[in-house]
Amino acid sequence: MSGSAAYNTLVTTFTKLYRYQHLQMIAGWDQAAMMPSKGNDARGAAMAELAVLMHNTLTAPHLNGALTAAKAEVTDGVERASLREMERQWQVANLLPADLVEAKSLAGSRCEHAWRTQRKANDWQGFLVNFREVVKYTRQEATLLAEATGLSKYDALVAKYEPGMNGATIERMFNELKQWLPGLIKQVQAKQATETVLAPTGVFPVEQQRALGLEVMGLLGFDFEAGRLDVSTHPFCGGVAEDVRITTRYREDDFVQAMMGIVHETGHARYEQRLPREWVHLPLGQARSMGVHESQSLSFEMQLGRSAAFLQLIAPLVKKHLGDQPAFAPDNLGKIYTRVKPDFIRVDADELTYPAHIILRFEIERALIEGEIEPDDVPRIWDEKMLAYLGVDTRGNYQNGCMQDIHWTDGAYGYFPSYTLGAMYAAQYFATLRKLYPDLDQRIARGDLAPIFTWFEQNIWSQASRWETPELIERATGEPLSATHFERHLRQRYLGEG
Amino acid sequence: MSGSAAYNTLVTTFTKLYRYQHLQMIAGWDQAAMMPSKGNDARGAAMAELAVLMHNTLTAPHLNGALTAAKAEVTDGVERASLREMERQWQVANLLPADLVEAKSLAGSRCEHAWRTQRKANDWQGFLVNFREVVKYTRQEATLLAEATGLSKYDALVAKYEPGMNGATIERMFNELKQWLPGLIKQVQAKQATETVLAPTGVFPVEQQRALGLEVMGLLGFDFEAGRLDVSTHPFCGGVAEDVRITTRYREDDFVQAMMGIVHETGHARYEQRLPREWVHLPLGQARSMGVHESQSLSFEMQLGRSAAFLQLIAPLVKKHLGDQPAFAPDNLGKIYTRVKPDFIRVDADELTYPAHIILRFEIERALIEGEIEPDDVPRIWDEKMLAYLGVDTRGNYQNGCMQDIHWTDGAYGYFPSYTLGAMYAAQYFATLRKLYPDLDQRIARGDLAPIFTWFEQNIWSQASRWETPELIERATGEPLSATHFERHLRQRYLGEG
After folding, report:
1. Where are the alpha helices (DSSP H) in B437-482?
2. Among the four residues A138, A232, A436, B38, which has the most C-beta atoms within 10 Å?
């Protein structure tokens, strides 16, 4: 118990919210992984009722006074951080008028629902009608959040996903990337053009892929008494910190994606599983941000999972579960998992071209929210940037161009940078780790992953939301976020430099 | 919308409760079928928070006035029935003081928790300490409910599980059973002593048993777009009407129990799946009672599932999934599924001896609640009745005697009769069906189960809680509940009479 009565009141309310959120997360996981189709309407109604309840709990009039009083009373550093995170959640629920929240939510649902057919039909003009509405309400949201927080409009949206980050910093980072990334992609493509890659062939039964996935999860420290692996159309990491549910999807003609997908989700999962238990019921105890969450999955997938050392470690497991074939040689697995090919679709992109997809989205959505461009302008700018950054021609191809993502349909502007920020954080973590353990790759290859997990435990997982992201990164790595580590990692992996 | 504003207010509140209950049921199913062990504390806290919320919703002060006003305003028959069912739920939450509810709940948890080890240790004296407390609080509950409802103490508890039923009627029915049941059991044992039954042998892999179970469920009309089959330690039917989750447990050396367990749970499931959708959000739209629910599972398991005709129908499926062996001949399956053997344990009892287990529990718990006997008297009476009804000696064997069930540990007095009432309802339904379809067995044998489902749809499933149980039974079968049909069914099945 704190010495501040007001703070204790807040703890009571946020503990209640944590319990409601538990039900929300489990019902959401079930909806994606277990629920039969006819259960959907009742589930939707129940989850909407729960959302109303959570909103009402977080907008109860007494909380405003309790926050003000607690801020005056609390002096302890952890409690002050706890208050900061409570206030962050409180603001999201309280700063916006209910009619705007509802209008944006309805516009988003309408746009997303129609998009599912419009995308298939390449129907940009049809999409544009709903898209304009979503942008309109998101701009209103951004304006109100900007007024309340003193940030710019776009930054106010970014802060929802990456507290402490802003458009100017992202722009600076991404501009650095833009200087060397397109050239690097071309270089790597030229290099890989002469390489031979054996494609795995055969049927890989789901049960065997699952057994392989479970063994790899075990290697990565997943706690099976506090989580599960299941199947869903779109893989995700859900559930609650005490009971983390990851999913994947299997194709019997290809295990490559499912296996690395499991590594990725296990990165998310371990972060959740190792969040500090003494704060688990408070905003303070939750994962820092979308970007930091992605930095965990990308640490596992990109830094560790696709490394030559890790593939050397798990190649015998692949053989054990899926039988032997030349394509399963560690060296060949390495080639498979580092193949670079500029293409239309972000979610299918490789490690090297992925940032280009993100940079163009960041530039477009920032301009959209700041009112510098209009929804009608998007395809033209998209086409230009895709050609410039990736050499891919998307003219007239809306479905594989600016209509490919769900984020802009349902109003999640400010979210896209998280993906590449996560990749950059991950590269910086591993640069630090490599300084601490010059023999890191040898350790990985022989299955000694403890140094990695211990470092994450101490520097990221146990810190939860104790610090805003820039401070978390600086405390963990000894320096502010820098694009250098990401560049060095990519040059090392893809060109063998350094 | 009703013409009564008060009634509409109630509908709003009960719709909210229905949505909360959805979350409760899904979280409860997940806890039993999916949740890893370390998730349990957080789940318990979340479900307790939800229970508090539901209790607060149902005890909101305005509901009392709304119920009174609506009862004065509503004239429509369906709405009056709807009000009756709302009031029933309201009473359960409002008639008892919070401190008694809490004291009983704590005493029940303590007793049940200790019982799990005391039972194994055959520790009656240790058990007795907690058991006395549970009986004390249950008597207080019964006294208050009796005062409020005008029923006797035991009847007030029975009404929680079987509205409209009472101890006097149950006593009359059970006294009838007692006249012929012990003799019938002996006769059947004598007859079966000379029969040869082939035991199935081999290993029956879980996946094959599951495939068989799914096919049998399909035959029984289970809607897989509105439900699932999973595994849990204690099989149950859970979920919600729109999304029914049944479970079973498999043993690789024995498929007999799992298969019939699936048939049993499918009976529960179809009742839920076919409850009328227009009432699904109201107490009116919920299953009538524990006894009627059990009548559905026992209709499927006992009346249909263990019949010679049904076993003839599914014997080819058993062979298809588990391979062929002489034990899978329909006639032999019939012998397996109708084997009679008086024994200690209720949950393992066969169709014929099961009612004896229930009758003795009813007689003891009724006397306990009415204050005619004390907890200390239970073993002595148990031993006497087990010897009289089943010829089984339980002296000193508490763990397989009066300490075998969970019901008395956590205060669920008045529940036991539901099992045998359900068996009697089921026999009466099928007597009606056989009058309508004299060729019912031939139809079953050739897979024409539609007449059965149509009859249940019209007479039971679609009626939900429209009528109290006695009226439901009389409307469905044209006469009040009578033990005759049950006796005739048993004599026909086990002695070939009639």
Report:
1. 440-445, 450-459, 469-477
2. A138
